[in-house]
Amino acid sequence: MAIPYEFGYEKPLTLEEAIQLLGKHGKNARVLAGGTDLANEVKQGFRVPEVLIDIKGIDSLRKIEIIDDRLHIGALVTFNEILESKAVQDNAYILYEAAGLVASNGVRNRATMVGNICSAVACMDSAAPLLVHDATIHCLSVDGQRDVTVQKWFVDNRKTAIGEKELVTHVSIPIPKLKYAGAYQKMMRYSGEDLSQANVGVLLFSDGKCNVAFGSVGPIPKRSPKLEAFIKEKGINSQSIADAKEMISKIIAPITDVRATKEYRMHMTKVMFERAINTAVERLKKPKLITKK
Amino acid sequence: MKKISFTLNGELRYIYVAPNEGLLEVLRDKMGVKSPKCGCDSGDCGACTVILNGKTVRSCLIFAIEVDGQDILTLEGISKDGLTPLQTALNERNAYQCGYCAPGMILSVTELIKKNPHPSEHEIKESIAGNLCRCTGYKPVIDAVLEVTKKH
Fold first, then answer.
1. Residue B130 and residue A1: Cβ atoms within 8 Å?
2. Which fold has domain A195-285?
3. How far is A256 from chain B (nearest CA, A)?
4. Phi and psi for A117 in degrees, rounded to 5?
5. Were B17 and a residue from A164, A192, B9, B64 both cysteine, which residue would form a disulfide, CB within 3.0 to 4.6 Å?
């Protein structure tokens, strides 16, 4: 489809150049990484920029590395690069698990995790894993660096806490000190190419602490401190899981759309919560910290 | 308009593009490369697949200006010297009817067997997932790939 709007294109080769450009153009610019969401938005006229700032020339944004007990994932890291990364598999298995369920191979070759949370479409797959891992989003602008916790990142459907002149350089995840295991569950109509109708992430620690996040069942993905406190207090058994499933009715607010009804989303979120928590329990029993399939 | 250059099927090519031109349209309408097709035009169907720097991508989701200096391979490129064993196996099985999804499927499998010469059925299915076929179904495609990649 021909795009009936004109816009400029810049390809900075350094971070400094990129933030200068963002400082100059502000909200009239869109940052282009993989473009799998952005190209559709531009084609549909949903968000038409004056200028695209293509950051793919900035190699420092392409890294996955561990610095000071935190796993850093750069803005240009694609979902397939996450799938190929031992550092991610070893330190944030649930993110690896979710990355494998994003769209199809041809999309994962291009789509980035940071782009996923910047587009912030409610059905994104990266949010629940990042939420349960207490990730931090690192932004850079001409005014300096600003770090935002993932809990404060999502503001509304397709709306984040990013500033007009800011570029997300990377996301970092604290590597837990305690033994832990996670599980990600996604409901979709068929595998290989579908958006999630609902998703659940669980991260369970050896001291009984349990982080739970729900995605695609409200305008923004979210954690539930109330549910987490309940599980920590009662432990994981059939009664506490049954009670926790009841609590979910009041925590999430799914809508009906072309992909699923709100009733089905509500029901399946409870089912997936149970599956995820049971999987996490099983994985936590394994001798190694690393949770392989 | 900006002059960009990139390698297309092994040849260095130059072309003038505007930032709002999509790669799929530029390849088809300005450069005469017709194997990538426009299906859903939103990245879901795989008909527009090309290989960019060794990896399959959706050309409908890429602005042409982004590929300046890159390397693009299409079906025309991989069958320059005649049909590949994979294509022959697909032909022998009549794996395609209308053929609209064929270039995307073939490029997706080509990417797979380059890094994994003996894939499992599951890996084949994962590689062609997102390439939607509405005619013959996927079975003869998977069978053909299994045949050309089985261990000897």
1. no
2. Enolase-like; domain 1 (3.30.390)
3. 22
4. -85, -15
5. B64
* A109 close contact with B: CB closer than 8 A: yes
Q: Domain A59-174 belongs to what topology?
A: 3.30.465
Domain containing B27 — which CATH number?
3.10.20.30
The DSSP H or E segment spanning B57 is strand B55-58
Beta carbons within 8 Å of A250's beta carbon, 6+ residues apart: none
CB B102 within 8 A of CB B96: yes
pLDDT of residue A292: 43
- Return the CATH class of domain A8-54: alpha beta
Residue with token string 């190699």 = A59
Nearest by CB to residue A36, choosing from B43, B126, B127, is: B43
Give the A:B interface size as CB pairs under 8 Å.
Answer: 94
**Phi-psi region for residue A103, left (φ > 0), alpha (ψ -120 to 50) or beta?**
left
pLDDT at B22 over 50: yes
| Model ipTM value | 0.95
Domain count, chain B: 2
CA dist., res. A166 & res. A180, Å (int): 34
Residue with tokens 């599951």: B122
Our CA-based measurement puts residue B24 at a distance from the nearest CA of chain A, in whole angstroms, of 9
pLDDT of residue A192: 60
A39 vs B126: CB contact, 8 Å cut-off? no
B7 shares a domain with B43: yes
Query: What gap in Å lies between CA A124 and CA B85, rounded to an integer?
Result: 39
Distance CA A50, CA A29 (A): 6
- Do residue B30 and residue B67 come from a single domain? yes
Q: What is the pLDDT of residues A243-252, one digit of tens each?
A: 999 999 999 9
